[in-house]
Amino acid sequence: MKFIRSGIIVALLCCCPVALAAPAAFKIDAVHSQIFFSASHDGYTNPTGRLRVKDGTFRFDGDDWSTAQVDATIDIPSLDMGDAPWSSKLLSGYFDATVYPTARFVSTRVEKTGERSGVIHGNLTLLGRTKPVDLKVTFNRAAFNGYTLHYVAGFSATAAFKRSSFGMDRETKTVGDDVSVHMEIEGVRSGDAQAQPDTAPKAVAMLRSGNEQWGSLAKFFHWTIVLLIIVQGTIGLIMVDLPKSPRVIPYFSFHKSLGLTILALALWRLSWRAIDLRPAEPAGMPPWQVSAARIGHALLYVLLFAVPLTGWWFDSVSALRPLYWFGLFEVPHLTGPDTSLKDLAAAMHQALFWLLVLVATGHAAVALIHQFVTRDNVLGRMWPASLQRKPTSPLLPETADDASPSPAAPAGANVADIAARDRT
Ligand code: HEM
Ligand code: HEM
What we know:
Elements: H1 2-8, H2 10-15, E1 25-28, E2 34-38, E3 48-59, E4 69-80, H3 84-93, E5 102-112, E6 117-126, E7 129-145, E8 150-162, E9 178-189, H4 202-207, H5 216-241, H6 249-275, H7 287-318, E10 323-325, E11 329-331, H8 342-374, H9 415-423
Antiparallel strand pairs: 1-3, 1-9, 2-3, 2-9, 3-4, 4-5, 5-6, 6-7, 7-8, 8-9, 10-11
The structure holds protoporphyrin IX containing FE (2 copies).
One protoporphyrin IX containing FE binds near residues 233, 236, 256, 315 and 353.
């Protein structure tokens, strides 16, 4: 069963995040990407202006540059010469921005010329005319950004062309015809890396989340933790009401061991999340709902750590006996004994548990509303594939994990759409 298989290889995967990091498809980050162009001002200076990338994607595999591709759209009205009247003069007089609000570069072939350098051959469409333009590119870095927790690749590139070849032939005597371009391009790996079965082993691709589905490892963590918390909470509530006698010790020991297991699973879940992708919010979801979901999930993560940690803290300050994990090995106490903190720790453990119950109930209710009222498949994409009903079910997609989008799948199609299309 995929669900169980995922669990067995948790440890292996946590040890080799770098192996999973092979980049494939990237979305250009318009904020951290800059395009500078410059042309001579009658020989006095070489003024420089800036344009922004409107939208774009690239594919890049450091081991095989020949598979690289770029498609970027440039936002012409974003042109900035650092002086508003000058910018508008260029926009109307040179770029005819109202008629041609965008320019586009599409690569045709990428050639590696050095360890980190290459040439991107492609076509630039400017003022409605398409001409070949080559970009000399330097690959700077591809790595996980510890701040955004995204896999990012960055390049610097230069290009040169004659503006008159695109029909931009105004004042070529005083304003240079030769335009040089310098750009800094950063891309964030996007979910459609998942859609390339050849770039990663199938088993790995299945474990990872994509744009439309949580991967089986994220699902394994989510539902295993949910199940264990239900068992753990029930044991906790029962054991504290049992009459005090040595006979209750095994219940407490089991509760502590299971609690530590949940804590370890939460830690692995969060580590995996740092390198995994995350499905996009359903299209059309209002921003306040997106923020509410993020805050709710963050709170659940905090509680997933706070509840077991306060239990561990309570056990430490009580220091009744050594703490063992299922009798197999000793787990150190968090602090030395301090009976004055016992009541506080117990109260916090109990209060945080009930807060977790409250937030998780709200969270589950929202998930159900998404599934049955909004019908945007939010629960379906988190549901274990092996528990999903077969085609007749209107509730959940057919086989979420197996239905990783095939290359021809339209962007944004959900798994149910793809499964339905593949059946016909
Ligand atoms: C997610 C993990 C955990 C959950 C959901 C959980 C839940 C609970 C609950 C519901 C109670 C009963 C509270 C009450 O009504 O007084 C309880 C008590 C207790 N828990 Fe946990 N617990 C977790 C982890 C831990 C851990 C990791 C430890 C220790 C290593 C621990 C140690 C204890 C102890 C010693 C009590 C008894 C407190 C008392 O005597 O007042 N728990 N837990
Ligand atoms: C103890 C109970 C639960 C905890 C601690 C919990 C925790 C979480 C967390 C932390 C996330 C965010 C995942 C991430 O962004 O990495 C999440 C997602 C999710 N949970 Fe839960 N959950 C619980 C119970 C449930 C239940 C009972 C349901 C369904 C009835 C549910 C449905 C979902 C769904 C559908 C998502 C994915 C949301 C999305 O795709 O944006 N959860 N859960």
